[in-house]
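WARN  no MSA supplied for this record, continuing single-sequence
INFO  ligand: adenosine-5'-triphosphate
INFO  echoing inputs
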Amino acid sequence: MASIKKLLIDSLDDLDKAQLKRFRCYLRDDYKFPASGLEEADVLDTVDKMVEREKQEGAVKITLDILKKMNQNQLAEELEKKLKVKKAAVDSKAVDVDYSEFSNTLKKLLKQDYEKILDGNSHQNTYLTDIYTDLYIVKNHTGGVVNEHEVRQMESNRTATEDTSVMCKDIFKVQRDTGRQNRKVLTLGIAGVGKTVSVSKFILDWAEGKENQEIIFIFPLAFRELNLISVNRSLMGLINKKFFGSENQLSSLPKEEGKVMFIFDGLDECRFSLSFKNSEGFTDVTKETSVDVIITNLIEKNLIPSALIWITSRPAAAHLIPPEHIDQVTEIRGFNDDQKEKYFTRNSKPDMSERIISHIKRSRSLHIMCHIPVFCWICLSVLQPLMMTQENLQSIPTTLTGMYIYFLLSQMKQMKAKKQSDNLPQSFEDVVLKLGKLAFTQLQKGNLIFYKEDLEECELYVDDGIVFSGLCTQMFQAEKPVSGRKVFSFVHLSVQEFLAALYVLFICKNRKTNPFPLTLGDKLKRTFKKNSLVDLHKTGIKNALKSKNGHLDLLLRFLMGLSLESNQNELKDLLPSLNITAEDLRQTCEYIKQKIKKSVSSEKSINLFHCLNELNDDSLITEIQEYLNSEDLSGQDLSSGQWSALVFVLLMSEETQEMFEMQKYRRSDEAVIRLLPVIRNTRRAL
Ligand SMILES: Nc1ncnc2c1ncn2[C@@H]1O[C@H](COP(=O)(O)OP(=O)(O)OP(=O)(O)O)[C@@H](O)[C@H]1O
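INFO  complex generated
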């Protein structure tokens, strides 16, 4: 345990040069320390001088007093907390509690709970160590628009050059270079990128005695579970009930620094408010209170000041924790290119993995999406059976929509077999359309997690076993009930977006209605005109462009992809005879091009290019490729639409990912601004 002197040094180390100078001035003026020798004193000398003259207790008092005078209240508070912990540790030594038996019981329980996972939510448990592939995790999330759509974030991934990568098992270890240890870490990552898997691996390694053995207790408390606790509990009561089977087993926790760890997975799923401003400074671990008070006070270090805290979250919810309560932010970026290949190699036979990898590399969209582990799992479950049967080679999907259609079809096969054996009343098509309705209505509201009532609004009844008897279990999941209330979600946000698009098309065809919110103008037009597919496309595009965080972007891409005849053929049971004509598609493509030319933001126009890609229209791209092949790349005479096309082509090029020769284009300020998404996405900009 750090000495008092070390605690003082650590505090003053956080002051910059000017602040340290002010600190010394206070010492001189208010505490009459002799000026000689003080002027040039560094942190060590300053602390030495205080302890020499005032002894440890006096030095602490003076330090706290001056820090407060300097308005360094946060530093003063932290120092006070550390001193409290130290005092408690000294006190507890007198009692000398032996926690080893409880620690071993907890390890046994967590080993059982975490050694197997539902891989990508297949209904079979898989050993975590069998599938686990290292992920690319970086220190210091670099900021940016955090509520941007998750797939778009992936595609405009930020530059890798300034990141320091970190292994998940090392996140809480003392850092060799600085000697510091992170106490409170927030790990961000988009849906399906591996946050829960990372946390699980950390816990399993600890429970198996492999890593981080200086920690005595790790208590994983996922927000999904915490949401369901509606009665007041004390922290000790909560821990005892969840981990030791009754309310009164473990009576205290170790007070020494870093011996207890709390892991709060899935902040984005938190359904109660976390109020840090009005926090009451709740310090009693045996007093009952609401769950939000326990969590905020743990994070604020009022409850167990010595505890390590690890919170994971999708980026959009990161703001729920004020930055001053976090020592280190890390970001899980998913698999890098090597890790993607390792994933496929680990999870399929050697000749199969080679074929899968080369297939994915051929399609830029698929290759990009494979940064997300859960998408790798979807690819694996689609491509493996397809590639096993030689004659299917022609029909192996190369577009995003194609991949999801095959995913759906593979589910259909399994479900039909299951339906026969279980004699279930509803058809696959019915269930998928109901899930589609749920997907669409909840996506419009920005919801990714649902409750029983939400399902019932779409005529999906949990109790009649249709959804959970093996039907849909790979697309839709229910969480373990903790106190009777189940939570549901799609296995990945992209699956929700795909089913939503399917539903939109179905509604347009069958009920001749347009499920998107319509503007007044659209409504008026509709009274005079019959509802056409082109109108549906147009309102879809308008709504997606209106969305601030791009929550309809992927739905739009799927909507376009599903409108192609070739894709329709695969889905004739679900979407019979949509009667889409070449003229319809031409009109939609023209409309998209107009929108691109009107210079929407670069992210939006990139998505519109993806839509054109799904519709097999590459005319703008060909135009720009000719320009790229020409000698003069000064970039002066490009129209707005051409600029967008250029950015799209460059983003989709593997070469640009590695290196981008900006100097070829840098003749105008406009070029620099326009090409920003490319610069952000490349590893090396020249
Ligand atoms: N490191 C990994 N190695 C192998 N597979 C992984 C890894 N990480 C994730 N996966 C796969 O991706 C799936 C989703 O991962 P996980 O549940 O950890 O995502 P998440 O980031 O917590 O997503 P969400 O925000 O939706 O909760 C896993 O079930 C697994 O199939």
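The chain has five domains: 4-95, 101-118+125-334, 342-391, 399-580, 592-685.
INFO  checksum written, moving to next record
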